[in-house]
Amino acid sequence: MAGTLVALGLRAIKHVPKNAPLRSAAAMSSYTRTLIGKREIVGFGFNGEPSYIDRADYPMPAIRWKEPNADIQALREKEKGDWKNLSVEEKKALYRASFCQTFAEFKAPTGEWKSVLGISLMFVSVALWAFYGLKAFVYSPLPDSFKPENRAAQLRRYIDLHANPVQGLASKWDYEKDDWKK
Amino acid sequence: MFRTTAVRAQSIFRNALTPKKAQAATVSRFMSSHSTETDEQFDTRFENFFNRKDIDGWEIRRGINDLWGHDLVPEPKILIAALKACRRVNDFALAVRLLEAVKDKCGPKVDEIYPYIIQEIKPTLTELGISTPEELGFDKPELHLESVFHIH
Questions:
Q1: What is the DSSP letter of A8?
Q2: By the 8 A CB rule, do A99 and B97 touch?
Q3: Per-residue pLDDT tens digits for B47-66
Q4: ipTM of this model?
Q5: Residue A24 — very low, low, confident or very high, per pLDDT cuts 50/70/90?
Q6: CA distance A111 to A113
Q7: In which compartments does the protein localize (chain B) (predicted)?
Q8: DSSP 8-class letter at A41
Q9: ∠ at Cα A28 (A24, A29), nearest 5°?
Q10: CB of B61 within 8 A of CB of A43?
Q11: Over the stretch B93-137, which tens digit does the pLDDT of each residue have?
Q12: What Cα–Cα distance (Å) separates residue B91 from each residue in A11, A99, B106?
């Protein structure tokens, strides 16, 4: 029984109908109709989805921006004639029927970088105040070895130990004159 | 029980498992290859594509989107062919969008390339009655659209 079921399942996987893409396209179109309404599908777009997006790298979207209405239909009839007879307003209306934003509009700077920079600097200032607060109230003072005289004593000790005599500290120290080499 | 399953599975996968000799002869090798097309051939190919008499709006859009995937500003003769194709399918908006896209494609050299292209295609623009984006006032942002991320 289970074997039969498995076999039937595998057979179903193997025998994918040849017209599967067509069928899914038909199913998609009824669903996309609810999304895009009466908008005309005019192209492939950037990925084959019937969606509208203004992109500079794919300048021609897959659908027109506006659903056709009486005004646009009238304009489309006029569009079939000589384009010299179209007024500037009609030309702009035709453009706006097909496209949402012009290149100048969708590439216009938004000024968002200012808020990004401002908010980042606010976080930086909070971090700095936190650091100084911790330094003032939480951490104990630095150990004695950070004091200048202690650090000078430690340097003297390294010199006396001939530390790093080839290229480092001791190689720069003149032991006969007891001073740095000039 | 398991034997039944195995036998059936074997019968199903048999085709996939046995090498297909007939196909092996025609299978193409997946190796990188460089295009030997010259620039002139490229231009002519796209010009011929847009010059097709039976071209429709879908094909024009596909041609432009394909062309825009290349790292180049299209030659004026390609643009003239594309504009005439827009005229044949009666789509004015497409022609203006194409000019806008050309201007964008010029990138940082827009001051050098765009005037040259307009100068070259000016006779076609006049002949077909196409306005440049500048004449329509599309060179500056005209309408504001609230970002979809800020609507709600």
A1: H
A2: yes
A3: 999 999 999 999 999 999 99
A4: 0.74
A5: very low
A6: 5
A7: Mitochondrion inner membrane
A8: B
A9: 120
A10: yes
A11: 999 999 999 999 999 999 999 999 999 999 999 999 999 999 999
A12: 49, 12, 24
CATH superfamily of B39-128: Cytochrome c oxidase, subunit Va/VI (1.25.40.40)
The DSSP bridge pattern shows strands A179-180 and A173-174 to be: antiparallel
Q: Is there a contact between B68 and A58 (Cβ–Cβ < 8 Å)?
A: yes
Give per-residue pLDDT as tens, A97-130. Answer: 999 999 999 999 988 999 999 999 999 999 999 9
- Look at phi and psi of residue A120 and say left if phi exceeds 0, alpha if psi is from -120 to 50, else beta: alpha
Correct CATH for A36-108 of 1.10.442.10, 1.10.260.40, 2.30.30.100, 3.40.50.80: 1.10.442.10
Which candidate in A16, A42, A49 is best for mutational testing of the B interface (most B CBs within 10 A)?
A42
Give the closest of A11, A44, A104 to B138, CB-based: A104
